[in-house]
Amino acid sequence: MKGSRAWFMLLLSLVAGIAAMVLAARWLNEQSLARTEAHVVVAARDVELGQPLNASMVTLVPWPAGSVPEGSFPNLEAIDGRVLRTQLLRGEPVLEAKLAPAGTKGGLSAVIGQGRRAITVKVNEVVGVAGFALPGNYVDVLVNTQDDRERPVSKIVLERILVLAVAQEASRDDTKPRVVNAVTLEVTPGEAERIDLARSVGNLSLVLRNQVDRNEAQTDGIRKADLLGDVPAPTPPAAAAVARAPKPAARPVVRRAPVASAPQDTARVEVIRGVQRSSTDL
Prior knowledge:
Distance between the termini: 201 Å
Mean pLDDT: 79
Largest sheet: 6 strands, antiparallel
Number of strands: 10
Order of helices and strands: HEEEEEEHEEHHEE
Structural class: alpha+beta
Number of helices: 4
Helix content: 10-25%
Shape: rod-shaped
């Protein structure tokens, strides 16, 4: 009798332990679900900058409540029609910092920063850094012109200028070089004036720079004399030929005795009359 009672108590303890474990697991699961009750709007596919968002481009996914990104959106209605300022990859949260102000229309104008302007510069394969100046890169602007004394000079006029677009493309996910005939730059109003004046007085070139390099170039420009150094002025060809020609040897001066002048004949007139002859000196 005592043995049966002991087995019964043991079985009851085992059932109570299993029940406690089940209840504890359920409680932990509920707590875990409570921590993931937040939802965040993320990109359903890759979206290029300048495009207005709609329901087909985004989706709502669960997100841990303790790690919700700052500036994220909890519902799809909050981002409907908003325009992207940067490219958005699939699964990436949609943040306020990546969107243009509400009411902005799509296109390149939505990408331009506050107080900035966009200006297009005509380029070729050389000026455009062989096509490596892509959207999102930074360039310096170089002008080749003449100074006040009409001497050739080359000078950096603008530094760390953001490339907004090449030709009609503003995508920043492409790393393959593209040779185009126009590059659009983001500048301030004052920088836009400098570029406009520079391209009217000389030829522009773009200089690709490191993305994280913010150091300013302290240069005074370079002129032809600086490039070639101290080179003597070239001698004209005619003067050089005369200088190379051998000089004739000096001849001795021979002094001759003066020659006496021969007496001049006196003119005479002779008159004959019959057998008489007479002459008269002139």
